[in-house]
Amino acid sequence: MVMALLAGPALAQQPGAQPSGPAPEKTPFNDPQSNSEKKKIETPGDKGNKSQDRQTDASGTSKDRLFFTLPNFLTLENANQVPPLTAGQKFKVVARSSFDYVQYPWYGFLAGIGQAENSEAGYGQGAQGYGKRFGAAAADGTIENFMTSAVLPSLLRQDPRFFQSGHGGFRRRTWYALTRILVTRGDNGKSQFNYSEVFGSAFSAAVSTYSYHPHADRRVGNTAKVWGTQVGYDSLTYVVKEFWPDIRRKLRKKKE
After folding, report:
1. Stated pTM of the model
2. What would the DSSP string read from start to end of the chain?
3. Where are the domains of the chain?
4. pLDDT of 222-249, one tens digit each?
5. How far apart are CA 62 and CA 82, in angstroms?
6. pLDDT confidence of 191, banded at 50, 70, 90?
7. Does 96 have pLDDT greater than 90?
8. Contacts of 28 (CB under 8 A, 6+ apart)
C-alpha cells in the first residue's frame, strides 16, 4: 500500500502524462495562421483591374489623358460589354473634352504653325492674323468633335468611344486601330460602318471652309483637303490610343 501511494506522484511527473484540464486557447501572438497576421496577396491582375478602375468613370467614359495631358475621355480599356451612352452623356463628354484647358495651347500651337507657313494667306500676318488662325483652329476642332462624337452618334445610335483591343502583336493592333475610322460599335453592341466619323468629319470640313475661312480658300478641293486631313489625324490618334495604355504602364513601372 505504501509503495502504491509513493508510485502515484512519480507517475504523474513522467513526461508522457497529460494534464486533465482544458487546452489553452491560441492567441494571435502564438498562432501564425491567425486572421490578424494573414495578408492578402495582390496579383498582377488585381493591379491591372485597379488601374482600369482609376481610368474609368462611372458614366462609362474615361478619365485618362494621352501622355498625361491630352483628353482621352472616350477611350475604354479591356471593355467588352458596356452599356451604351445616352445622347446626353455623349454631348457631355464631348463638351468636357472640347473645352478642356489643354486644348487652347494646342490650338495656339496649330495657329503658330499656320502663321509661320502663311497658310490661308487671307488671314494676314501679325497679331490679327494669328488671332484669326487661332479662332479657326479652335472652331475646326470643336465642330468636328461634336459632329463625329455627339451629334451624329446620337442621331444614328452609334457609340463614339474607342474600345482598345490590347490583344495580339503590333501589326494586328495597328490594323485594328486604323480600321476604327471605318468600323465602329452601334448602341446595340454590334459592329457597323462608322457613318459618324466619315460623314461627320466631311460635314464639319464643309461648314468650316464655307463659313469662316478666307474667301479665296472656299473651294471644293480645299474642303476635300481639310476632310482628308481630319480623317488622317483621327486615324493616327486611334493608333496612339491603342498603344497608350502599354506606354503608360511602362512609364509608371520606371517611376516605381
Report:
1. 0.74
2. -HHHHHHHHHHHTSTT---SSPPPPP-TTT-TT-TTT--PPPPHHHHHHHHHHHHB-TTS-B--EETTTEE-TTEESS--S-PPPPHHHHHHHHHHHHT-TTHHHHHHHHHHHHHHHT-SGGG-SHHHHHHHHHHHHHHHHHHHHHIIIIIHHHHHTEE--EE----S-HHHHHHHHHHTTTEEEETTS-EEE-HHHHHHHHHHHHHHHTTTS-GGG-SHHHHHHHHHHHHHHHHHHHHHHHHHHHHHHHHHHHH-
3. 76-254
4. 899 999 999 999 999 999 999 999 999 8
5. 13
6. very high
7. yes
8. 34, 35, 36, 37
**What does the chain come to in residues?**
256
Q: 12-59, pLDDT tens digit by residue? A: 444 444 444 554 444 444 444 444 444 444 444 444 444 444 555 655
C-alpha cell at 221: 478641293
